């Protein structure tokens, strides 16, 4: 592997999704997961630190690789131990990254404060303890709550059923508190969730992961649009379903969700993996409901020696900078990371692009040598 972001050159989704970027007076870094499932590497590195300071001599290069103790874990998504309720609070602590491992069920807690350029493993929450206390399996996405607790979504249960509605609570020391459920309410959350505590709203993308489970998922669900193209809007924290947003064919398949960090703006984005669109969702003018529109579309590229003359994109990773100025996403098939200025949410502007390699290595996209940030 070279020293550029080429650590992301792998052969499947999750290989190099930019998870979170941190910006401060001293550091401008991006933490990237690298999946080594099935490669047989003796000391796999699961988290790479990338320098994203344009004034640095190591700009857009990997400056540290963190090795974790178990071969085969897949770290796809992460959350900071901080939330939108901390927006504008200089005392808010963004010290820890929470990384669920979908297949093994472990939850890794990574300390980025001791040495931001070389993060370290702080704690591992073992799957047997999670199953014993909650019956949940396949942890997927994590976010912190305003009270400092950590909330993690689970795509299934210990028997391999694709429930898509289980949540684990960890306390501020990352000890297991139990499940988050309200009596008589069983919300059907799934792939990703995001909430605005000041506006008492949680929005979730509903998309199953059938290959990971033995039961609970059918193609009929996709045909009905249940998994394939909808967002669910819930009251927070009571879990009452308020609205369902059908994103249509332009919204296939909704994955990661991010609200803007400033909760007064009432807007967010969801990556639509299959349709290769970034959809913006927002409150209507009267404030009574939510609406949506396509904000960014990935155009197909002409390639050679491939199964199709033009290859669409496949968006698999999304983050928004802490100051809400920039949106980043990974376009898997085209093998690039894109940076958009979203200060005007209705007019996102492409301001940076880094080609890191992808499935189009088999052919050559017409501008594959293009690298800029």
From TrEMBL:
Protein keywords: Selenium
Pfam families given in the database record: SBP56
Key word Nucleotide-binding present: no
GO molecular function: selenium binding
InterPro entries, sorted: Se-bd (IPR008826)
Recorded family membership: Belongs to the selenium-binding protein family.
The name this protein goes by in its record: Methanethiol oxidase
Biological classification of the source: Eukaryota, Viridiplantae, Streptophyta, Embryophyta, Tracheophyta
């Amino acid at each position: 592997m070279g020293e550029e972001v080429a650590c992301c050159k792998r052969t499947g989704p999750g290989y190099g999704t930019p998870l979170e970027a941190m910006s401060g007076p001293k550091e401008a870094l991006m933490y990237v997961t690298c999946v080594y499932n099935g490669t047989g590497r003796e000391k796999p590195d699961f988290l790479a630190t990338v320098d994203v300071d344009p004034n640095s001599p190591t700009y857009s290069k990997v400056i540290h690789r963190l090795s974790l103790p178990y071969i085969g874990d897949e770290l796809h998504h992460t959350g900071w131990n901080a939330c939108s309720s901390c927006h504008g609070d200089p005392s808010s602590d963004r010290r820890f990254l929470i990384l669920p491992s979908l297949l093994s069920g472990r939850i890794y807690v990574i300390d980025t404060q001791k040495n931001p350029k070389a993060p370290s493993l702080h704690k591992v929450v073992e799957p047997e303890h999670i199953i014993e206390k909650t019956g949940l399996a396949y942890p997927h996405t994590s976010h912190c709550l305003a009270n400092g607790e950590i909330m993690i979504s689970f795509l299934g249960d210990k028997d391999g059923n694709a429930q898509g509605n289980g949540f684990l609570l960890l306390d501020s020391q990352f000890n297991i508190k139990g499940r988050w459920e309200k009596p008589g309410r069983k919300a059907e959350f799934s792939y990703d969730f995001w909430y605005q505590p000041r506006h008492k709203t949680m929005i979730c993308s509903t998309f199953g992961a059938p290959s990971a489970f033995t039961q609970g998922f059918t193609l009929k669900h996709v045909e009905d649009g249940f998994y394939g193209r909808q967002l669910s809007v819930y009251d927070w924290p009571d879990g009452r379903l308020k609205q369902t947003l059908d994103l249509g064919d332009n919204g296939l398949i909704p994955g990661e969700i991010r609200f803007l960090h400033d909760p007064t703006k009432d807007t967010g984005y969801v990556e639509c993996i299959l349709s290769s669109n970034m959809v913006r969702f927002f409150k209507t003018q009267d404030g009574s409901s939510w609406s949506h529109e396509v904000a960014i579309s990935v155009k197909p590229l002409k390639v050679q020696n491939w199964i199709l003359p033009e290859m669409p994109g496949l968006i698999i990773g999304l983050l928004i900078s802490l100051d809400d100025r920039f949106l980043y996403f990974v376009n898997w098939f085209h093998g690039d990371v894109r940076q958009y200025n979203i200060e005007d949410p209705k007019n996102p502007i492409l301001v940076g692009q880094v080609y890191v390699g992808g499935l189009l290595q088999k052919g050559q996209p017409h501008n594959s040598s293009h690298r800029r940030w």
